[in-house]
Every structure is written in structure tokens, then in C-alpha cells.
Amino acid sequence: MDQRYRIPPLAALNAFAAFARTGGIRRAAAELRVDHAAISRHVRDLEQILGTPLRNRTTGGLTPAGQTYYSQILPHLEGLARATAEIRQQTPSLTVTCVHGFAYHWLLPRLAAFRRTYPEMDFILRPIDANTAFHATGIAAETHADICYVRDTAAALTLRGLCSVDIARPPVFPVISPEGLAALGGQPETVADLLHAPLLQEEDDAEWRLWFQAQHVPAKTIPSAGRLWQAHITLAAARAGEGIALSNPFLLGDDLETGRLIRIQPTRTPIHNTPLGSYVLRTTDRGWENRGLSFFRDWLLEQISTERLAS
């Protein structure tokens, strides 16, 4: 091959273009989600290949040669990006990060049906421990969505700057194992009696406080039978007879039908099974237009509507 037409490595060209576009090594590194040392190395390698400085070490900007080179390669890099995007749109792809309980107990058993409906789609499910920070996941923003549980008290803050749709607002109610109920001596007389029962908490007592508030029961302190971080783990502890857990239909699977868990139903005062928050499907502006997300969003909302679990 004629050495005059030898093309530098694409990684070096991409790093240089990001540096030229953003005006800084660290900003380019943040855009490409790599260490800033990698950007510096790629720019130096490219300068060595070309035999001329591209970055002015004094001002931090481009040299005249760097500016000329950037303007010449930019249309070609944009052409590569467009061609890649077109191919990706032909083969829909989507990565969904999801809170563990919803992913394991409700979504996973239904994914086979989704895959049969969209066999050509590249779909990845990634259960996670906490709400997704889209800029830090390492997943392409345009092919990434997230399912999270958002309490009503935190909805505006949590979803700022993202496109989202409420999937469901499930009722929340306490459950216990048959063994745990026997240890209590049977169903409590009133909702307030639960303040003297072993209550299983997640990372804090916030969910229980909201629930007692919805029941119009003052609760200065919430008795803890253990803090277990995640809702599906509190349910596992409840099945083992360790106490009472708050739950909703998306987390229970067939626990109520099989009798592994029983709903707490006080004998003298009723429980108001009110929602405390919503399951939300969210993504970035770019991700919202993803063809794969459109398929998944429509299927997900139809499934929930059909099963009448949304409220």
C-alpha cells in the first residue's frame, strides 16, 4: 500500500476529533468515557504519525495544522458515524438496567414472550442495586433505558433532565409468612399494633414512614427487625419468618397464591393499600427515539395493562 494513503488508527483519530470538538483533553475524555491520559497518548501518537504538532502545548488549543487536519477529517468521521447509526437502526438493540425485585420477580418470567415477539432485537437486561447514572454506566445513551422505583416524594428530583413514562403505581401493603404470623399470635387488631411488630426495612425506614402516614397512623419510631437494603431481600427475610415486609404485586410473584406469604389484615381497622411511588421507564432524549426502546415500551405498557397490576 502506498504509504501516502496509510490511515492512522481510528482510536487516535476519534480521540483527536473529540479533543478538537470539546477544546480540552479532560473534556474529550469525559465525552468518550476514557481516562484523560488515553486522550493525550492518542494525540501524541497521531502527531508522531503525521510528523507535525496538532496541539499547542502553551495555549492548549489546536495548532494551525491541527485545525486544518480536523476540518479535513471531520466529514469522513461523521460519515462513519451516520453509517454506523443506520446499521444499528436496522438491527434494534436495547440494554435495560432495572431494580432487582422488578427484574427478577416480574420482568424476567415474561422476557421469553418479548423475545418471541421481537426475535431480531438485541436485548440485554442488567439488574442493578440503585438508580442508574446514565453518564457513568458505560452503555451507549441511545440504546440504554432504565426501570427504577421512584417514591412520590422524590419524583421531580430523580427524573430531572430525562424522558420518562410511569409504568405502574402499585399498591403497597405488608406481608408476613405463616410462621411469622403464628409467632405474632395471629393478625393484629389495628394498624397501629404493627408499631410493636418486627418490621423489615430496606436501606432505611422511609418506606414504612410513608406507609404509616398513608394509614393516618402517627409513627415516631419504626421498630426494625433488620435493614436489608433491597425490597426483594426483605421479602426473602419475610418468607424465612423474620418479620413483616412491605411489598407490591410486582415483587410477590406467586407468594400469595401459594401461601408462602400472607397479607397483614388487622381485624378492627382496615388497611388502605395506597401507592407510595411509581415504577418508571426512563432514558435520555436520544434514547427515547431508539427504535428498540419503542418496541419495549409499547410491549411493557401493554403487559401491565393486561395484567391490571398498575394500580
From TrEMBL:
<comment type="similarity">
    <text>Belongs to the LysR transcriptional regulatory family.</text>
</comment>
<dbReference type="Pfam" id="PF00126">
    <property type="entry name" value="HTH_1"/>
</dbReference>
<dbReference type="InterPro" id="IPR036390">
    <property type="entry name" value="WH_DNA-bd_sf"/>
</dbReference>
<keyword id="KW-0805">Transcription regulation</keyword>
<feature type="domain" description="HTH lysR-type">
    <location>
        <begin position="8"/>
        <end position="65"/>
    </location>
</feature>
<dbReference type="InterPro" id="IPR000847">
    <property type="entry name" value="LysR_HTH_N"/>
</dbReference>
<keyword id="KW-0804">Transcription</keyword>
<dbReference type="InterPro" id="IPR058163">
    <property type="entry name" value="LysR-type_TF_proteobact-type"/>
</dbReference>
<dbReference type="InterPro" id="IPR036388">
    <property type="entry name" value="WH-like_DNA-bd_sf"/>
</dbReference>
<keyword id="KW-0238">DNA-binding</keyword>
<dbReference type="InterPro" id="IPR005119">
    <property type="entry name" value="LysR_subst-bd"/>
</dbReference>
<protein>
    <submittedName>
        <fullName>LysR family transcriptional regulator</fullName>
    </submittedName>
</protein>
<dbReference type="Pfam" id="PF03466">
    <property type="entry name" value="LysR_substrate"/>
</dbReference>
